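Appendix B. Raw example, untouched.
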Amino acid sequence: MRQFRVVASGDFLKPDGTSAFPEFSFDRLADDPRIEFRFLPTASEIAKSHIADADALVLSDGRITADSFDPGGRLALIAQFGAGFNHIDLAAATRHGVAVTNTPHGVRRPVAVSILTLIFALTTRLFVKASLTGRGPAGWAEVTRHNGVGLTGKTLGSIGVGNIGAEMFRLAAPLGMKFLAHDPYETVERAGALGVELTGLDDLFRRADILCVNCPLNAETRHIVSAARLALMKPTAYLINTSRGGTVDQGALTELLAAKRIAGAALDVFEQEPPDPADPIFALDNVILTPHALCWTDELFAGCGRDAVQSVLDALAGKAPTHIVNPAVTADAAWRRKLESFARRSAAIVT
């Protein structure tokens, strides 16, 4: 009886074959006698030939398109390492009886900490002051021109009160700020438990002193931070985006920042990644830019790795993994048969 076959995308390895993420290990899969485990070649897109004989795929960054799936194939699970899954064709996965999971627990605290890091850096004028430190008396004399902004009594706003947005508010609770959010899927009761007032989207843009984007990228949220909504913001306000670049009209934001219509912004994500080095946003002095990696810490990698591996082990045991992002697949008879088959085979191998 054949083993349960698990493949992992090639970007989990460095070019020299060592682990790109040493904070976690695939040993729980590689050392399991029920499992045949291997890494795929590094590729920007996962091809059908890469996963035709696999039961599960642990994925980092490779794209999954409709052409990646083999009709009637064995694949039952794509365990995404991280929270984002907009590079996976979920509709095609569902059609082919493939569940897709992500790792929201692993990213929740690290991303929320990143947001607070950017809040503190923007409002204290951290990078401006750091640049003055080594300039001698002339630099030190400029310090009074770059006073920061205190947070007490200011309004922290969020587009979204989901996994990361809620954690951001929990971490910010001791700062004495007012909390405001827009989230059509959140209830007044759950938001109230966090001390968050729910409001309309335009009202959020008008009232927030610091506005953070904490929603997934989809058809509804693409350019949810539009030119029209950016124009509603206070001239003293800041925008922070650690979600996905497509949620913000980056061109409109660049124009707004260049005209000093808002105080500043911090972006860890961009509409094009990596961005063009000639992008005019890099010439601005009121923006902090990081390469979609501010949350990359040992805590994040360990948590994401643990949860992705657990999704695979759940499928092997015939259980529906937690954090399935295409839940319609759980009603698919072919997918259920795959899980039942995995459970029978793994039990036979063990005995």
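End of appendix B.
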